[in-house]
């Protein structure tokens, strides 16, 4: 096929025609004027003399295509609108192809969002990132399905509407999920730097903590009514303040001889926040410089008792004069 | 009488006939119409007509990439377009016969 040089005159004529069609939807204008430059260039090569008036040309194009005539011009508004439309079209012609190329990124992103949303909704896991082989597999399946849909495969025709709804949901959830994920991936180091318990005045660090007979309490072990050890108990004082024994960075011994040391590790709440009032508190093994070890997980601390006597609830409720019975509650 | 006025009424069937002969892009159709004797046909009228016939489902379209220069959008006729062409051919034949008879003063047989 012979190609014809597109001169600046032809290009500016085509722009003027598109401008005159500016009140039409961009897609319509593209369809109407696709190949316009090439056609004009060829007409010139065929011996055509002068270019016609672009406005009249646009009007002829529009009428022949069966489109409504341009509404009466309202100079200011119209010019502004057509300038905007032309600018938008130019911007899209620059950005559009890139956006189209990036569609696969979106297909993967929406699968990840869907996976996170399901994990989050089931509430089973506080951590959204897949951890086990099964979770990774589920996520991978979600990605494969999403990409297949993106390529127009595996979707019956009635499926279009659910996919559109799903896309809208995915866009809406993208930011919250990423935010939540951001919280989750905060490292222990970040926690130490950034998270100070609510009741800690950073200027008076040394006054914080829980004391028993004047000695700092480093950990708290709770037992239920039957005398069994409890895990992950959240403690607050009478003012609703978290009962915190250790500040971020607080350290202690991992064994009785203090051969190994560790950093007190907070619990992670469903909100993604760290909580320093969850007991018994775990400890993250560290090196001698009290830097946490990357490949270690927080360790549960051994309880001082495996079990304690159960509570006699009946007598507790009926003992109306414990003080009369004696300081130990014995009669 | 202005021939361009007459042309407006028959441009659809003229364009369909040209495309039915062989697929073509915008200016190619213009050139073939002119070569056939419709010298006053306007480029923009033809492009607009091609677009409208395509929207009406009478034509198919495909893009032929070009190594240099812009891509070419070709139009071809489909079954619906062929049916439209047949009908309009008949309408035109009857109409032109009637007009010929009227203008030459011969009454219908």
Automatic annotation (TrEMBL), chain A:
Report the domain of life of the source organism. Answer: Bacteria
TM regions (residue ranges): 133-152, 158-178
Alphabetized, the UniProt keywords read: Membrane, Transmembrane, Transmembrane helix
Q: Where is this region: Disordered?
A: 296-331
**What is the name listed in the Swiss-Prot or TrEMBL entry for this protein?**
Uncharacterized protein
TrEMBL record, chain B:
Ranges for domain Transcription regulator PadR N-terminal: 15-86
* Pfam families, alphabetized: PadR
InterPro entries assigned to the protein according to its UniProt record, in alphabetical order: Metal_resp_DNA-bind_regulator, Tscrpt_reg_PadR_N, WH-like_DNA-bd_sf, WH_DNA-bd_sf
Highest taxon, organism lineage: Bacteria
Q: What is this protein called?
A: PadR family transcriptional regulator
Q: Source species, please?
A: Aeromicrobium terrae
